[in-house]
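FORM 7B - TANDEM STRUCTURE REPORT

SECTION 1: FIRST PROTEIN
SEQUENCE AND TOKENS:
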Amino acid sequence: MSLPQSQAEANAFIQTLKSRYRGLPSREKNTLKIALTFFMALSVWYGGFAPALKIIQTHERQHNRWQEEQTEALWIAEEVKRIRAVSQNNTTANAQNLPKLIAALGPQAQITMEGNRSVVNFKSLSAKSLTQCLIDARAQALAVVIEAQWTQSSSPGNWDGRVVFVTPLLQINSTKP
């Protein structure tokens, strides 16, 4: 039996199915009704109810995950604001720490500051003092060495040269909205 191509063929096909159905014994009719009802129920379930039920079941988890992500994003935003506020409040104090650190080295070191760049020239400075100065500049003044040139001086264990530091003063101020 092939599928109908026109309206007339479709009507004839339906009439053939009806006559075959009428000719079936009642037991087979009931089995066919049960099978068709099962097929229709299965179609309705997989076509409509199952996807809707899945959405309902996953909605709570999805909503909770979105809530957690939003809470985390808000916490991160607050942390950024707090860190910026602390950094901006401490930037001036940190930038003022560098000249104090260099002055503590004595007359062997001189500092020249231009914006967020500081050039330190030193003569006959001990390796221990130079090392401690670099560590303190990073820790206390938030200064980063961007250029360093030094040579061993005529006195053993001492160094001559220059170090260029950059402090976060202009970097933080440039991030203000």
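SECTION 2: SECOND PROTEIN
SEQUENCE AND TOKENS:
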Amino acid sequence: MIDTAIKIEDHDWPQWFAALNYVHEFGGIECDAGLFEQAEFLSQLKAGGIHCTHARNLIPDDVPGILDTAQRNHAVPQLYERLYAAMDTACSVGDVQSFSMPFRLDRIPKEEEDAELRRLATFVSRLLFAPVNHAFNLLVPVRLPRPFPSSEEISRAVRLCATARETPADSNINGDWVPSDKRSAFKNGIPSICLHIYPDEGILPDFNSLDLHLLQPFLGMLCFHYNVNAGETLFDDEQEQWATRLKEHGFPGTVVFCPDQCPPEAIDSVVTAARTWSNFYLPDPTQE
């Protein structure tokens, strides 16, 4: 079954919560992980019974840079403990099912690619041992169209996920890990890829294209972006086609509708449109 969610703007979350009241088409919301540091957000999330399908920017800056800083300061265990605490809060209160963070994979020099992907794979593998109350996934974000023609973001993301799935958590990362009594005894999920799609930036390949064929075994989430303030939207026929193709391929993940730069006065109409798109992803009754 394909779950659906809708991205909410961080600064307008009260208006989004009001618009989503009694809306049952979506499995949850997608929001910035930083919102889980706000007491009022946590209170209203719990009171409204709203689930957070995905929390982005668990680390708001680029992951390699944060790791470099932690290693220089001999603070790798403290980094894990801080992230574990943030993930525990998000999972406990918001029922978060997945997290992501910016890996900036295109910035890795070619000569450092193998070593850096192994380091990042170990980091991802260890995060999956966060002591939370339910399983979750860690997602590596990539985008289509590609950031630039020679971008290797997608192929590197595939390598990162494949390596992280096979990497033991005790692999060396140039720093100590947290003590065993402060982490889970087992992995809570699997590393997967979150594909951010920007339809208005150009012609996109279909699900049988080279990029998506490469991604398919690792694909955990698709995010369809559109700039509401610029008059962009998603189209019913395109969403219906995506839904049909994803169901044909047995996609087991989540589709997120991402209305970027959405003014408050447009929230109600955006939610109404997304409810229609969400229905396309429901299981076909004739196939059950």
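SECTION 3: OBSERVATIONS ON SECOND PROTEIN
The mean pLDDT is 89.
The longest helix spans residues 76-94.

SECTION 4: SIGNATURE
Preparer initials: ____
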